[in-house]
């Protein structure tokens, strides 16, 4: 699927140095299209998305830090707390299948608002819960609320940014995921040690309330419904124009177009097109009349039908599996001798993975964006999505090695700095590979991004549901060293699927081009 519309450098006569940026996807001249928004407008929208990402992953991660305190306060066992984590994954798996079709049908804005409001309510409820049943219920609802974030952010990135920016934006997204997974739990652990674990959930609820207000007044709808010139904005005209627009985009992306793509410095907007009013930009619902039911089953078909999506699902799912095992092991092992860590100290063990992921997000995101420009130039100006995978051999080795180092050092009771270094290596691999895999799907199948990432999120959470049940027995039977050695080699086997994607990815995209054309045109 090598094509002129995807190229980034166009070596032409007349002294062009081969570094001219070509816009992909090809934008319209409508200033209302999110791709054509000003940088400040995009930053405002995407900053709110990043903030809610950090907040949601904070809510999904901090409970494991509190286990040592909750066992005493709620009179529950570690096994029951592991089950509560599994219930959370059930909510995450079900929620993405339920909410993302609504985002496609009614717009991104209402889904973000509902998700933030539900997370707000469950945060305050968790701060007051007294029973095991309430613990399970709040974990289920938090999973449902957080599920939207795992898919809708990638849809938003596709709405707002061109291909040569998406790696960096996904890098920022993965950084927010890791801030929520590792950095804010450190603050929560400190607060829990000094004020109690309930105070952390109260602070989370207050932050959610502030973010809900910001979303209500500052987050613009990024669902774009192009209007046929000279035709009134009616549902029928809108849906017809969407289908026509999809057909045009797909034909451009699956064949060598005769027309040139638009250079970044030559793209012009038609300001005769009236700007949308404040009410339209901040509408609670942006409705389009297509059938909603296919969106509920299409994600599963997309994962099974497109190798790049399945590849992304495997990388992302197993990355989260290792993250779950690592986080749970911290909570199970470090309160015991020889470490005898408090909740605050367990929280600070997240520094290593966070730093590693921060470096990994830069490596897989911004360096990934640079690498596709470099490899496109070497490929006579033609860009292939698989070029993002060329730099992932180092992260694959780092992830496996980090897991093994983490398990081997805690099994020997070595100084905490050594498992922290192992966690940092793991975080570097997770950030790099997840970023590249997510961006690969957006670049390859932009018009079915929602379906693709709903399927990816479902697979990631479905695989993770059973993991909390297995951690304690596995750790008791095999020991930390053998458990993490097994995790390391399984991780290496999964990440080495990068090799066949690099070799045969282009061929597989060509083989599925007609299938993609049909699905995106529906």
Automatic annotation (TrEMBL):
<feature type="transmembrane region" description="Helical">
    <location>
        <begin position="389"/>
        <end position="410"/>
    </location>
</feature>
<dbReference type="Pfam" id="PF07690">
    <property type="entry name" value="MFS_1"/>
</dbReference>
<feature type="transmembrane region" description="Helical">
    <location>
        <begin position="483"/>
        <end position="505"/>
    </location>
</feature>
<feature type="transmembrane region" description="Helical">
    <location>
        <begin position="170"/>
        <end position="188"/>
    </location>
</feature>
<protein>
    <recommendedName>
        <fullName>Major facilitator superfamily (MFS) profile domain-containing protein</fullName>
    </recommendedName>
</protein>
<dbReference type="GO" id="GO:0005886">
    <property type="term" value="C:plasma membrane"/>
</dbReference>
<dbReference type="InterPro" id="IPR020846">
    <property type="entry name" value="MFS_dom"/>
</dbReference>
<dbReference type="InterPro" id="IPR036259">
    <property type="entry name" value="MFS_trans_sf"/>
</dbReference>
<feature type="region of interest" description="Disordered">
    <location>
        <begin position="1"/>
        <end position="33"/>
    </location>
</feature>
<dbReference type="GO" id="GO:0022857">
    <property type="term" value="F:transmembrane transporter activity"/>
</dbReference>
<feature type="transmembrane region" description="Helical">
    <location>
        <begin position="300"/>
        <end position="326"/>
    </location>
</feature>
<dbReference type="InterPro" id="IPR011701">
    <property type="entry name" value="MFS"/>
</dbReference>
<feature type="transmembrane region" description="Helical">
    <location>
        <begin position="86"/>
        <end position="103"/>
    </location>
</feature>
<feature type="transmembrane region" description="Helical">
    <location>
        <begin position="452"/>
        <end position="471"/>
    </location>
</feature>
<keyword id="KW-0812">Transmembrane</keyword>
<feature type="transmembrane region" description="Helical">
    <location>
        <begin position="346"/>
        <end position="368"/>
    </location>
</feature>
<feature type="domain" description="Major facilitator superfamily (MFS) profile">
    <location>
        <begin position="44"/>
        <end position="503"/>
    </location>
</feature>
<feature type="transmembrane region" description="Helical">
    <location>
        <begin position="416"/>
        <end position="440"/>
    </location>
</feature>
<keyword id="KW-0472">Membrane</keyword>
<keyword id="KW-1133">Transmembrane helix</keyword>
<feature type="transmembrane region" description="Helical">
    <location>
        <begin position="200"/>
        <end position="219"/>
    </location>
</feature>
<feature type="transmembrane region" description="Helical">
    <location>
        <begin position="43"/>
        <end position="66"/>
    </location>
</feature>
């Amino acid at each position: 699927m090598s094509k002129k519309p995807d190229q980034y450098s166009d070596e032409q006569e007349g002294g062009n140095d081969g570094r001219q940026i070509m816009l992909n996807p090809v934008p319209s001249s409508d200033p209302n299209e999110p791709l054509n928004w000003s940088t400040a407008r995009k930053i405002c929208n995407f900053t709110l998305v990043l903030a809610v990402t950090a907040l949601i992953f904070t809510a999904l991660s901090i409970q494991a830090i509190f286990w040592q305190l909750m066992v005493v306060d709620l009179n529950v066992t570690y096994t029951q707390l592991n089950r509560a984590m599994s219930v959370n994954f059930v909510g995450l798996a079900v929620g993405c299948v339920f909410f993302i079709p609504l985002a496609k049908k009614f717009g991104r804005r209402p889904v973000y608002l509902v998700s933030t409001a539900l997370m707000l309510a469950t945060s305050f409820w968790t701060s007051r819960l007294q029973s095991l049943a309430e613990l399970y219920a709040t974990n289920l609802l938090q999973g449902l609320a957080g599920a939207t974030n795992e898919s809708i952010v990638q849809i938003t990135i596709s709405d707002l940014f061109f291909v040569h920016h998406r790696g960096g934006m996904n890098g920022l997204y993965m950084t927010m995921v890791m801030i929520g997974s590792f950095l804010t739990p450190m603050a929560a652990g400190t607060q829990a040690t000094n004020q109690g674990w309930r105070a952390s959930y109260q602070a989370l609820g207050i932050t959610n309330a502030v973010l809900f207000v910001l979303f209500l007044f500052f987050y613009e709808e990024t669902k774009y419904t192009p209007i046929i010139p000279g035709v009134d904005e009616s549902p029928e005209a809108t849906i017809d124009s969407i289908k026509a627009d999809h057909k045009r985009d797909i034909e451009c992306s699956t064949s060598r177009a005769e027309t040139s793509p638009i250079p970044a410095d030559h793209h012009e907007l038609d300001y005769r097109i009236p700007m949308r009013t404040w009410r339209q930009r901040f509408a609670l619902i942006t409705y389009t009349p297509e059938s909603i039911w296919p969106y509920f089953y299409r994600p599963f078909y997309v994962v099974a039908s497109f190798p790049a999506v399945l590849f992304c699902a495997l990388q992302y799912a197993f990355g989260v599996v290792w993250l779950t095992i690592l986080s749970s092991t911290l909570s199970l092992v470090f309160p015991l001798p020889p470490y005898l860590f408090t909740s605050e100290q367990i929280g600070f063990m997240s520094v290593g993975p966070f730093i590693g992921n921060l470096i990994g997000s830069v490596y897989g995101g911004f360096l990934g964006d640079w690498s596709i420009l470099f490899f496109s130039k070497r490929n006579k100006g033609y860009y292939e999505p698989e070029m993002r995978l060329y730099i992932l051999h180092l992260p694959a080795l780092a992830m496996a090695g980090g897991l093994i180092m983490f398990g081997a050092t805690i099994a020997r009771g070595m100084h905490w700095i050594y498992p922290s270094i192992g966690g940092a290596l793991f975080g570097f691999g997770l950030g790099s590979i997840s970023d590249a895999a997510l961006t690969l799907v957006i670049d390859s199948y932009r018009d079915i991004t929602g379906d693709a990432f709903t399927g990816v999120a479902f697979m990631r959470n479905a695989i993770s549901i059973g993991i909390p049940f297995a951690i304690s027995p596995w750790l008791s039977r095999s020991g930390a060293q053998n458990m993490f050695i097994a995790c390391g080699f399984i991780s290496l086997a999964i990440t080495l699927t990068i090799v066949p994607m690099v070799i045969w990815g282009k061929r597989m995209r060509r083989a599925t081009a007609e299938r993609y054309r049909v699905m995106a045109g529906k």
